[in-house]
Amino acid sequence: xxxxxxxxxxxxxxxxxxxxxxxxxxxxxxxxxxxxxxxxxxxxxxxxxxxxxxxxxxxxxxxxxxxxxxxxxxxxxxxxxxxxxxxxxxxxxxxxxxxxxxxxxxxxxxxxxxxxxxxxxxxxxxxxxxxxxxxxxxxxxxxxxxxxxxxxxxxxxxxxxxxxxxxxxxxxxxxxxxxxxxxxxxxxxxxxxxxxxxxxxxxxxxxxxxxxxxxxxxxxxxxxxxxxxxxxxxxxxxxxxxxxxxxxxxxxxxxxxxxxxxxxxxxxxxxxxxxxxxxxxxxxxxxxxxxxxxxxxxxxxxxxxxxx
Amino acid sequence: xxxxxxxxxxxxxxxxxxxxxxxxxxxxxxxxxxxxxxxxxxxxxxxxxxxxxxxxxxxxxxxxxxxxxxxxxxxxxxxxxxxxxxxxxxxxxxxxxxxxxxxxxxxxxxxxxxxxxxxxxxxxxxxxxxxxxxxxxxxxxxxxxxxxxxxxxxxxxxxxxxxxxxxxxxxxxxxxxxxxxxxxxxxxxxxxxxxxxxxxxxxxxxxxxxxxxxxxxxxxxxxxxxxxxxxxxxxxxxxxxxxxxxxxxxxxxxxxxxxxxxxxxxxxxxxxxxxxxxxxxxxxxxxxxxxxxxxxxxxxxxxxxxxxxxxxxxxxxxxxxxxxxxxxxxxxxxxx
Lengths: 308, 336
Hints:
The complex is a heterodimer.
Chain A (H helix, E strand, L loop, with lengths): L1 H28 L13 H10 L6 H15 L13 H36 L4 H15 L2 H15 L17 H27 L2 H8 L4 H13 L1 H24 L5 H11 L2 H29 L1 H4 L2
Helix pairs in contact in A: 1-12, 4-5, 4-7, 4-10, 5-7, 6-7, 6-10, 7-9, 7-10, 8-9, 10-11, 10-12, 11-12
Chain B lengths: L6 H19 L5 H19 L1 H28 L41 H37 L1 H16 L2 H11 L5 H15 L2 H14 L3 H8 L4 H9 L4 H25 L10 H10 L6 H28 L7
Helix pairs in contact in B: 1-2, 2-13, 3-4, 3-13, 4-5, 4-7, 4-8, 4-10, 4-11, 4-12, 4-13, 6-7, 8-11, 9-10, 11-12, 11-13, 12-13
């Protein structure tokens, strides 16, 4: 087990550095500069800017300096557009918003998706099955940037039940619509995965044995079938985190939430180079660490994985 | 997702002759082809029995034809293009669906007009051209890269395979959407055509990974069969074995996955265009139309609802078609 973790760690850390390097290279290769706007700068001003940000040095020194401060101090520098704010402060302030919405959405998706998927599998080919699977397909097909505004239209502008946008701290009514919008897609995926997994497990021999020895249907489903049937859902956790990430970008944009995704889009539009690198690196670290944890959990649950 | 009550029954009837053909022709070079036709015809028959898949197929065909012919047809009949802005102040406002400038019922704009007085239906149909074009072309790109990569890795085996698949694993774990956004924003092109090309490069470079995995898996299970041995014994070169003998045999899963890739890529394109990194004006796609619509949702909801619903319907149909194809081509997978 320890060897497995070490081996995975040996892949994860270089991957994070590769992501940061790719971003750095893209920024350097891109035409123009962060200071080249509509106005033409005088050569003296340009020279000063280049000196201040170390752009007059050769590329390997710039690269080395950037990477070194990141590795050594986990410091991504200062934002170019949000003056006087360090990238780390911005991340520390915005990440909890994204994490709260994302986590709630994932939990909601898990509860609803597993329930709907199990019912569909237990009553295969019934109207419950077709109904929930058609709904799931709808959830996969409606883009979240269409679903979100339509929910706002119905619940905020039509019925006046919920606020349409803005962020007011963690437990608040403002979270309901963003969470619903974000979770629709995972709900649908998890329902489909659960149904598929459960259908396979319900046909297996050990379920027949459990039934044969006279267990109640409830015990058969809850204690035996679910455990095996949920394996596809567990292995979907890794990829779903990546989806969650892209989902939050759109949802934060629609509902004007001050989360990581919103800052990232702003930074990309403004060419705020340190902030771009900082957020990309942070997202890579979060994503790869979570993937690592999922892999370890999976290896723990299923010994076959470890020896592959 | 099938509506059939007992699919196993008619499979049993048809699997017999198919196997016999396969057995008899396994050594002949045309064997794969002979077996192929019967498999395809069989699959087509099964697909037609699946009502939802047929519904999907019909909708996809209708949307495609409407997108290609619609804007020109509207111009012929009513005399305006998707970009036509009336030069009359009273007309450059957003009218609800089926409403004329006088507030009475009118057939002129069945989906209403946008803020500049442009016809929403013409714009949705024109947006469909771009969305479908991006979806299909990017899928073809990902198909070419993914199939070649997966086939080579699977056939080569050993160290080469290990290395190539490790690279895919690493790519998989990257937050690629984030990198795509960085790429699209930094290299933002001045021309809409340039930005569209950039979009293709960005989407194409990330969407081939799953295809490579699927094809590799297929090749691994095929490469030790007799027909490959026979080909090798008669001195067929490695690349010819891969692309002439092995790849055609993976077509079933490849077609299924490609059908399911189109809606995914259309969604990705819409997502990027919605955020403002994708298709640029004067070109429009369903994503960029939805982005325009969102800003006016409170007053002019039809500007979001029509492109949004058209897109959702198309994706819904493509997904059902893909599921139906999978059931038809690979009956063993039907529960998934």
